[in-house]
Amino acid sequence: MTGHYLTDERRMIQDVAREFTKNEVLPVANELDPIQGEIPMELRKKMGEMGYFGIQMSEEHGGMGLGVFEYCLIAEELARGWMSVASIIARASSLMNVGGWPEAKRRELTAKAAQGEYLAAVSLSEPNVGSDLASVSCRAVLDGDDWVITGNKYWCTFADGADYIQLLARVEGMDDPKLNGLKNFIIEKPRGELPEGCAGSPIPKIGYFGWNTFELAFDGCRIPKENIITGGTGDGFKNTVNWLNVARAHTAARAIGLARGALEDAMQYAHERVQFGVPIADFQETRFKIARMASEVEAARQLMYHVATLMDTGVKADREAAMVKWYASEMAERVTSDGLQILGGAGYTKLHPMERYWRDARLTKIFEGTSEIQLRIISDRLLGKPTQRANA
Fold it and tell me: Is 368 a catalytic residue?
């Protein structure tokens, strides 16, 4: 089903991304995810040539000049192969809002980012700060011409492989009140290493393979004072919240891709697997399970199309972004679990990608704001904030 959302151009974009995933992403995922291998540079280069890192960047800066809709459309296709590959495209950002940099540098690095050659690791959470980003305690202190970063961060994926870390830290005691509060900083570094003044180690995960996720300790990490994001509102917390709306739509797309992978693999297996002399696709329970799976995937996709369209027409859509992130991630866990059940014992092995979809789907309920946080956002928009939040 496509509805009125898919124009001929969007259908072509979808078809190309689907073919790319089938031929380039899925074989790599099936080979490397079971051994926790990293996304190959060769694949990243091919993605750059396809333009997938610069989907939303302007053509002037080397991107495709498309919207949130196309971003999510492509992300769903890539996630059907490997969620980590659908995630790495979010590591490319325009650097035109780093106001202290010369325009030539901003343009050069933004153009490289659009080709996947200058990617970020985003460092928001801390050991005691997950969804409550307003409580970030990592500090940035201005010392002469440098910011000095001190504090601990957690859940920083791609900290080693990225070309820079975008870090949310707290600034206090500045004469200019606009500089106080939470700010986003750019920490440039060599690819494959952590910045000077920063130590860290990978966190052992049960999924989301293809890259490492780090805990980091900044101890006097120095960066030039111009390496601060000043675009948008200039407020690091507000900028992060606004960025999260698109990130939540992107997470919904990834969840839908995972669920679709489980659905399609389960359908194929149901035709091939014979029990009691007939394919298990003939059994009513299997048929009804697949019917429910397909209906849930399509419902989530249509909601995602709606939310992406709102964003592309300038609507903030924070409530709707929370809705689609909550619904799609909860749906993906159910659908991938049902897919695994259809495969039976085979689904509980690494001989099939079903277990990968299942493991990664579980993560979509946690990152970019947990399901509980999404329900809080939605209920606050519908009912207003409770009179006593601490007791809510």
Answer: yes
